[in-house]
Design a protein that fits this description.
CATH topology of one domain: Herpes Virus-1
Helix content: 40-55%
Strand order of the largest sheet: 1-2
CATH class of one domain: Alpha Beta
CATH architecture of one domain: 2-Layer Sandwich
Largest sheet: 2 strands, antiparallel
């Protein structure tokens, strides 16, 4: 326990709790937490403490051990609130308190929320710059400014991204050295400038390193404490259920292929779309690399050699990509309808995708939690009233 020290260490994030910070002391184990960590973990994160998930079990009276804080009121519609700490505040902490921090462990949630904010900060200026480029040559300077903003954010977030990925490796019990694979895409990109076979090598290296980092970011935390620090999440939430990926995807593609009735929780929806994204991205990127590289090398060799076979293989991968998209179209629409049902909305809201920014609205809706209790579309898929 650390409650006797002047600056105790928060068991959830591994960072010292300063005297001027808002803190929460667990009434059972007496551990001191940051307010953000306590609310994100829904209570204490100490193994076997009776305050684990206390905020999930009881959200009425504010306990006396809360220091300068209170819980937000429950929305009147019965849905759970969306904690902004998982996005903006957590991103700020990583960019300030944990900018160069390689020690300790990071859970999947911390990694993906940081990646999500980074993606928005980098891709939005890039997209705006692309729109100005399409508008005409007179907007070139304005478009260049937005592109520079996106590049600036990518450079500023590069180091904390490597450190965060290193802590993610610590969380699964591995050394942080594989985090250096993040240098592979930019370095292999320099080799691609030489042309020829180096373009194919760059594509393969980038694809392999990207898949490796994606797999690492999906693996669940190692149970209990390890040599790199305490478990960042409560023990009973620390598991990786294969149903979240392959088995659930198989069920949706077979048993629920044409199922429009009922409700689908966020986990079912996002895990299904995650598998679809991985498969389709792998097929498309592989086809693109093989076809473009094969065509370039085939022209350079005067139409001789095995490069025609490389082009044909890329074409087959592109054909498999198109077939896969056709197969997942109907179940994707159906699970989107059931996800809207889970929020108490009609499946006709899918038509929002036909209007500008409609896809963004649907994305935000699919991030919301299930409607409490039963509704007109069926029982709560979480089994919670």
């Amino acid at each position: 326990m650390n409650f006797d020290s002047e600056n105790p260490t928060c068991p959830a994030c591994g960072i010292s709790v300063e005297a001027d910070e808002v803190k929460i002391v667990c009434p059972s184990c007496k551990e001191t937490f940051h307010e953000d960590c306590w609310q994100e973990n829904k209570g204490c994160s100490t193994y076997l403490c009776d305050q684990v998930n206390i905020l999930k079990r009881q959200r009425t009276n504010v306990p006396p051990y809360f220091d300068q804080t209170h819980l937000p009121d429950e929305p009147k519609n019965g849905n759970k609130y969306f904690d902004a700490n998982t996005l903006g505040i957590r991103w700020r902490d990583i960019m300030t308190k944990k900018y160069c921090l390689i020690k300790g462990r990071a859970r999947r949630k911390e990694l993906w929320m940081f990646f999500c904010v980074n993606f928005l900060l980098i891709i939005i200026p890039m997209l705006i710059g692309g729109c100005f480029i399409a508008a005409g040559e007179e907007m070139t300077e304005v478009s260049g400014l937005f592109v520079l903003v996106g590049l600036f954010f990518s450079l500023v977030t590069f180091l904390p991204t490597i450190c965060l990925f290193g802590r993610r490796l610590h969380d699964i019990g591995c050394s942080a050295w594989p985090a250096l694979l993040m240098f592979v895409p930019p370095l292999s990109g320099l080799l691609a400038l030489m042309g020829g076979l180096f373009v194919l090598i760059d594509g393969l290296f980038t694809l392999a390193s990207g898949l490796f980092m994606l797999i690492i970011s999906l693996i669940g935390s190692q149970e209990g404490d390890n040599q790199y620090g305490p478990n960042p999440i409560p023990e009973q939430e620390n598991y990786f259920d294969a149903n979240m990926l392959g088995i659930r995807w198989r069920d949706i593609m077979t048993q629920k292929y044409r199922l429009e009735k009922g409700r689908a929780r966020r986990k079912e929806f996002w895990m299904f779309n995650l598998i679809n994204f991985l498969i389709s991205s792998f097929l498309f990127i592989t086809a693109l690399i093989l076809m473009t590289t094969g065509a370039a090398l085939d022209n350079a060799s005067g139409g001789e050699g095995i490069w025609r076979l490389v082009i044909v293989t890329g074409g087959l991968c592109m054909f498999a990509y198109i077939i896969f998209l056709c197969l997942i179209l109907l179940p994707s629409i159906n699970i989107m309808a059931r996800r809207l049902h889970d929020l108490g909305l009609s499946s006709l809201f899918i038509l929002l995708i036909l209007i500008p920014c409609g896809a963004v609205i649907l994305f935000l809706l699919c991030c919301l939690d299930s409607q409490s209790g039963n509704n007109q579309y069926g029982p709560n898929p979480k089994g919670i009233d």
